[in-house]
Amino acid sequence: MVWAVTAAVLAICSLGLIQLRAEGIGNADAFTGKPDSITGQEVSARYFPAGSGDPLVVVSNRARAEEVGRAVAGTEGVVPESLGLPPGTKPVFEGKVLFEATLVAPSDSEAAKRTVERVRDAVHAVPDADAQVGGGTAALLDMDEATTHDNLLIIPLVLVVVLLILCALLRALIAPLLLIATVILSFAAALGLSALAFRYVFDYAGESTDFPLFVFVFLVALGIDYNIFLTTRIREEAARHGTRPGVVTGLAATGAVITSAGLVLAGTFAALGTLPMVAFAEIGFAVALGVLLDTLVVRSVLVTSLFLDTGPKVWWPHRLSREDPGAGVSRSGG
């Protein structure tokens, strides 16, 4: 069966997901080139602690400030002698004490984020301190955690909403489920191939934490658009001539339009690859690749062959799943 072979190939492509490193990109790896800011950061790290350019900020109650300070200074990954007040800062303000600490690791590194986690655990263990840990590294850590939460929430939610819309539009259940499955498979294949390309072709250090979510939103939005164009036309033709003739006619009527639109969109997103920012280049490459897969393979081959093999049952529970106008026409003609 054509659809089985196509699905197997896409599934193999999706195995590249094991190479996906969407854990964030450090400043040193965020550009395709090497701007002056990165050169300056490297010089600073050579002569000073790597995290000196973006220190950790800690706020606590005045009564527990000494205990909190000892907890911070004793945490692995913190330069103990760096603990102190920022220049020009009052020692105490409204019963709160603010001080800074320098991290051993670069402030945007995974090691620095792990240090922030240890510092937070240490200061929160001080009773009645009401200690809070901030700064650039802490903000990056919080953004990563928020993005991970969004990935786990938004992606399933979008799929459910899209499924309900397709069910209402097609007045069926099997067809929308098949379409959602093809969208997921197309997304996984595009992400897998992109991960392999980023690692072994472009030699990027990794992907930003929001990379999967952005690619998913773009590919689902575009893929569902093409699904709607194709399947609504197939359904119209199936109601008059039967499912199999409807699939053939629907593909012939919409194929050129979908392919042209896909090529234009792929070229548009591919243009992002010319930007000097790695995050934008990665999103542009992955979306362009996903659109091409969706247009040339998924929509033209996988969806149509699935519909052809499933036959009228694809419209279940609508009456089209029990009545085949094409068969009736054939019997009348005989």
Note down, in words, how this protein is organized.
This protein has 334 residues and is mainly alpha-helical. The protein has two domains: 2-29 and 151-325, Up-down Bundle (Multidrug efflux transporter AcrB transmembrane fold), CATH 1.20.1640.10; 49-139, 2-Layer Sandwich (Alpha-Beta Plaits), CATH 3.30.70. The protein is 63% helix and 4% strand. It is built from ten helices and three strands, in the order ααβαβαβαααααα. A three-stranded antiparallel β-sheet has the order 2-1-3. The longest helix has 35 residues, at 136-170. The radius of gyration is 27 Å and the shape is elongated. The two termini are 30 Å apart. The model is unreliable at 328-334 (pLDDT under 50). InterPro entries: MMPL_dom, Mycobact_MmpL. One of its GO terms (cellular component) is plasma membrane.
Tag the structure with descriptive keywords.
334 residues, mainly alpha, Alpha-Beta Plaits, 3-stranded antiparallel sheet, disordered C terminus, membrane
* CATH H-tier superfamily of the largest domain: Multidrug efflux transporter AcrB transmembrane domain
How far the N terminus sits from the C terminus, by CA atoms, comes to: 30 Å
Number of domains: 2
Strand content: under 5%
Radius of gyration: 27 Å
The first-level CATH class name of the largest domain:
Mainly Alpha
Under CATH, the topology of the largest domain can be stated as Multidrug efflux transporter AcrB transmembrane fold
* Element order: H for helix, E for strand: HHEHEHEHHHHHH
Q: Largest sheet, described in full?
A: 3 strands, antiparallel
Q: Helix coverage percent of residues? A: 55-70%
Strands in their spatial order, largest beta sheet: 2-1-3
CATH architecture of the largest domain: Up-down Bundle
What is the residue-mean pLDDT, rounded to a whole number? 85
